[in-house]
Write a structure and sequence with these properties.
This protein is an alpha/beta fold. 38% of the residues lie in helices and 17% in strands. The chain has a six-stranded parallel sheet, sandwiched between helices. Strands 5-4-6 form a three-stranded antiparallel sheet, covered by helices on one side. Helix 1 crosses helix 11 and helix 7 runs parallel beside helix 11. It starts with a helix and ends with a helix. The chain binds 2'-O-acetyl adenosine-5-diphosphoribose. 2'-O-acetyl adenosine-5-diphosphoribose binds next to helix 2 and helix 3. The site of 2'-O-acetyl adenosine-5-diphosphoribose has 21 residues, from helix 2 and helix 3.
């Protein structure tokens, strides 16, 4: 492992463009349960309504029964509220330099990469830090550090339609602007790619790693568990993200 840390540190020193693809595991050390972890908190992944967790957080359920989805938005918000970036977020932010562009494509909705000071963050699944009007004709949006003062079914102050957090619900499309940026930056190419703390279930987080590996571009995975990209990557660290990224950051300084 120590040799691999040094090898990745050397690659980072030379790299001009780096991509980190991150998932819930990166925020685990900030005390936010991982997505699978949160799902497992419900018996068999079922909510007390007897509806699967992923269904209550889906676009169609939000359309039909917004008060039910909101019950779980409050829960999601509670899980992320007041949480602080951990050594993994800080290491990624510290790797930014005038010579090295560090891009982060995250599936996390907790805003912790921004809070750590990362400048080039693509939030593929949106953010809990903002509320939007659910009526696409209405342009209302507001920053929301907390949902504490909201009624059980918050409504838009402009048009009275139901509000929603600016996150991607199941069965919804990813945000267009984020996807365009993600595609643009991939088309420019990266010298080094990391997959950190994600089970890598979606094609858009697997493909950049797959394509880089096929093109002989170095790839790294940091995850205590095996995932769908574990066999593809050049360097695999079966370890927590915080300590591993801090060691790699140190190795860039030698
Ligand atoms: P998951 O909960 O599926 O996976 C978290 C991953 O983090 C697992 O592979 C763990 O092994 C790993 N992990 C746990 N602790 C870690 C640590 N300290 N350091 C490094 N890795 C650690 O979360 P995601 O892969 O992010 O989508 O889930 C992806 C998407 O699935 C979510 O964004 C959500 C869900 O469907 C939507 O809501 C659209």
């Amino acid at each position: 492992m120590a040799d691999d840390v040094q090898a990745v540190g050397r690659l980072l020193k030379k790299a001009r463009r780096v991509l980190f693809i991150t998932g819930a595991g990166v925020s685990a050390e900030s005390g936010i349960p991982t997505f699978r972890g949160l799902g497992a908190a419900f018996a068999n992944g079922m909510t007390e309504e007897g509806i699967p967790f992923e269904t209550v957080l889906s676009g169609p359920t939000f359309q039909r029964r917004p008060e039910l989805s909101w019950k779980y938005f409050f829960l999601l918000k509670q899980a992320t509220q007041g949480k602080q970036p951990n050594p993994a977020h800080h290491a990624m932010a510290a790797l930014q330099s005038p010579q090295r562009q560090v891009w982060i494509a995250t599936q996390n909705i907790d805003g912790l990469h921004h809070l750590a000071g990362s400048k080039r963050v693509i939030e593929l699944h949106g953010t809990m830090k903002r509320l939007l009007c659910s009526d696409s004709e209405c342009d209302y949006s507001a920053e929301a550090d907390t949902f504490q003062d909201l009624p059980l079914l918050p409504r838009c102050p402009k048009c009275q339609a139901v509000l929603r957090p600016d996150i991607v619900l199941y069965e919804e499309m990813l945000p267009e602007a984020a996807l365009e940026r993600y595609a643009l930056e991939q088309s420019k190419g990266f010298d080094l790619l990391f997959s950190v703390g994600t089970t890598s279930i979606f094609h858009y987080v697997i493909e950049p790693i797959f394509n880089a590996a096929r093109a002989g571009i170095p790839t790294v995975e940091i995850n205590p568990d095996e995932t769908s990209v574990s066999d593809l990557v050049q360097f695999r660290f079966p370890a927590p993200a915080g300590i591993t990224l801090q060691r790699i950051l140190e190795a860039t300084k030698g």
